[in-house]
Specification:
The chain is mainly alpha-helical. The protein has 17 helices and 5 strands. The strands form 2 sheets. Strands 3-4-5 form a 3-stranded antiparallel sheet. Strands 1-2 form a two-stranded antiparallel ribbon. Bound molecules: acetyl coenzyme *A. Acetyl coenzyme *A binds next to loops.
Length: 427
């Protein structure tokens, strides 16, 4: 007879234990009863970087890395990228259901109404150096927003949480666009509430003298990229938002922690690294030589491989299609030829096949952003705008989860045993 339990024999003591198995997991706290003596603290699981630890139960995003599946609230990413708007996806992630027409127009209206930032935020932004990295500006300014909205501390009130969600969704593109203008020494372009979410953001970044000729194909391509980045379950930045948010700090502070995590080159910075790699390769003819070097362990093929996806990253497939549409408008990015050749050679090579290395979401996104006119140090800012709905949904889910407490991992102490203080002149 089979049972949903795990039998453990502790060979240190000869004791047997039976732990329940639920949803393919045991509870780490159930290991605590396994002790060698009464004084023993109890067994712990050691899991640096949480490679095999589920930190929460979630209903938001489902990923099956072997079968290339990504779903938000059950809806396949392919369908959302084809049919939904970014604000519709943000609503879905937060509320769990697609909005009705009325719900969507209220949500859009609320976000539209809050796009302006307090003028003191502008003074604050102008204080950054001319060469400040836009991600540093973004994370500092979003953190500072918490001082403008002290009411955001009231995280236990659902209506209040909604207000802060609206504020963050509405103001992040404004701050991001101001950071873009700051880097160029251009005057800040204020939000235009007659435009939709994407068109307003594009206008705030590219408008000169109040004029910008909108390109609907490029705007929809940007919207698709944001949808593809909107959530990816318990990645580094989302875990940061949940962990910091578990202290019950306000959402502006928690989200700025997420932006900080995304800033790191191992997380949000990979698409920038892809462009640097393509620059380094220079021409299509040099691709085989470069691939050989990678195989010899001299560097990695950036934009390839993923911790979770061990077959094609479903987002990469969609991005490739979007790239074709964008390049039809902007003309071919000369680096695309090199990227396509890299992909072709790598996908036929046993080194990459045997390690299950396929293009990930970052392989083509940088090329698209560049064709749209965004510089490489701005790519991660665009990622942050896309990921915000995911951070907010995960933050709210964490707060509503009765099992969650302040995040506080354990450690295995391997340092010195107790020793006596040595006065400085005797050291
Ligand atoms: N190029 C060449 N070889 C690679 C690559 C790559 N991009 N990625 C992994 N490998 C090789 C490793 O050298 C290793 O080979 P070995 O078994 O002979 O030692 C094997 O494949 C397994 O690699 P790991 O590092 O164990 O795989 P892991 O799952 O830890 O890493 C990661 C995943 C970090 C994404 C990795 O594939 C990588 O560095 N890719 C390039 C950077 C990148 O594109 N990052 C973006 C990820 S998507 C995102 O964050 C939005």
């Amino acid at each position: 007879m089979t049972r949903d339990t795990l039998s453990i024999t502790d060979n240190r003591t000869g004791q047997n234990y039976e732990l329940p198995v639920t949803d393919g997991t045991i509870r780490a706290i159930d290991l605590r009863q396994i002790k060698v003596s009464e004084e023993d603290f109890g067994l712990m699981a050691y899991d640096p970087a949480y490679l095999n630890t589920a930190s929460c139960r979630s209903t938001i995003t489902y990923i099956d890395g072997d079968r290339s599946i990504l779903r938000y609230r059950g809806y396949p990413i392919e369908q959302l990228a084809e049919h939904a708007t970014f604000l519709e996806v943000a609503y879905l992630l937060a509320e769990g259901e697609l909005p009705t027409r009325e719900q969507l127009s209220r949500w859009e209206e609320d976000v539209r109404y809050h796009t302006y930032v307090h003028t003191n935020v502008i003074k604050f932004l102008t204080g950054f150096r001319y060469d400040a990295h836009p991600m540093g500006m973004l994370l500092g300014t979003v953190g500072a927003l918490s001082t403008f909205y002290p009411d955001a501390k009231n995280i236990s009130d659902a209506e209040n949480r909604y207000t802060q969600r609206v504020r963050l969704m509405a103001k992040l593109p404004t701050i991001a666009a101001f950071a873009f203008r700051h880097s160029r020494g251009l005057p800040y372009e204020f939000p235009r509430n007659d435009l939709d979410y994407i068109a307003n953001f594009v206008n705030m970044t590219f408008s000169i003298g109040g004029k910008h000729e909108p390109n609907k194909v490029l705007q929809r391509a940007l919207e698709i990229l944001l949808i593809l980045h909107a959530d990816h379950e318990q990645n580094c930045s989302t875990s940061a938002v949940r962990s910091v948010g578990s202290s019950h700090v306000d959402p502006f502070s928690a989200v700025s922690a997420g932006i900080a995590a995304l800033y790191g080159p191992l997380h949000g910075g990979a698409n920038e690294a892809v462009l640097k790699m393509l620059d380094q390769i220079q021409s299509k003819a040099d691709v085989p030589k470069f691939v050989e070097q990678v195989k010899q362990g001299k560097g990695r093929l950036m934009g390839f491989g993923h911790r979770v996806y061990k077959s094609y990253d479903p987002r990469a497939k969609l991005i490739k299609r979007t790239a074709d549409e964008v390049f039809e408008q902007t003309g071919l990015n000369p680096k695309l030829e090199i990227a396509l050749e890299l992909e072709r050679i790598a996908l036929e090579d046993d080194y990459f096949i045997s390690r299950r290395l396929y293009p990930n979401v970052d392989f083509y996104s940088g090329l698209i952003y560049q064709a749209m006119g965004y510089p490489s140090d701005y790519f991660t800012v665009l990622f942050a705008i896309g990921r915000l709905p995911g951070w907010l949904a995960q933050w709210a889910e964490m707060l509503g989860d009765k099992e969650q407490k302040i995040a506080r991992p354990r450690q295995v102490y391997v340092g010195e045993d107790e020793r006596q203080f040595v006065p400085i002149d005797q050291r």
